[in-house]
Structure prediction request, 273 residues.
Amino acid sequence: MLKLSEIWVYPVKSLGGISLQEAQVTDRGLELDRRWLLVDDDNRFLTQREHPQLALFRPEIIEGNLKIVHKELLEWIIVPFCLDVERKNDTIKVVVWDDTIDAFEVSSEISNWFSKIVGFSARLVYMPDESKRKVDPDYAISGEEITSFADAYPFLIIGQSSLDDLNSRLDEKVSMNRFRPNFVFTNGAAFEEDFWRNFKIGNVPFAGVKRCDRCVMTTVDQEKGVVSSKDPLKTLAKFRNFGNKVLFGQNLIGLGVGTVSVGDEINVLDKDR
Prediction:
């Protein structure tokens, strides 16, 4: 029996994640997932690809707020959840890859805190509910599906067996956090998620729409905030290279809303093979 073993949200894109026992599935991803984003002076998104030290910022959920702690400096700041209610700032246009998205700066105080620690200008922005960023139409189902500040899709799932297979080929094992999934499952075969098309986690339906392209971000050591080596990307490229893209994990679109919990059964309804 396939079981949901881990649930992860990453409230601020490219910062650390939060492990949850249950989460709400919304129309744009898990609740809180990638609703905040750091941008530069040109309003372009900042990620660990260029700034691996972002991994050292660790969010926590504290009494209806985000508490973001720098792992090494132990400095912290509070970011409120209820930004749609408290919003005072004007909407700005921010860029994630080829998408231009409506957002607003949370506060100059919070932006200054991030800028001071990273050593360059970084503003924290939030995606309000009225901001609708559509997924790639080539992989949409109805054409109306939306996502957050995630790279492209609302959800990502990876099997524990897939990571175990990869680690069996590595000199130094890596943790699942290198790949930043929302869902991890156990009891399946390695890479079987590649072929899932329609399935349910508990009672919530999902569709697998595209295997996930991997990049240099997988080489960032999430505990140290540095690029540790060319692995695991180098090794993945040897056996998971499809059309010059290194693939690991399956991108998903939600087909409903509801609650998912660690331990939920996963029922695969339709596969490619």
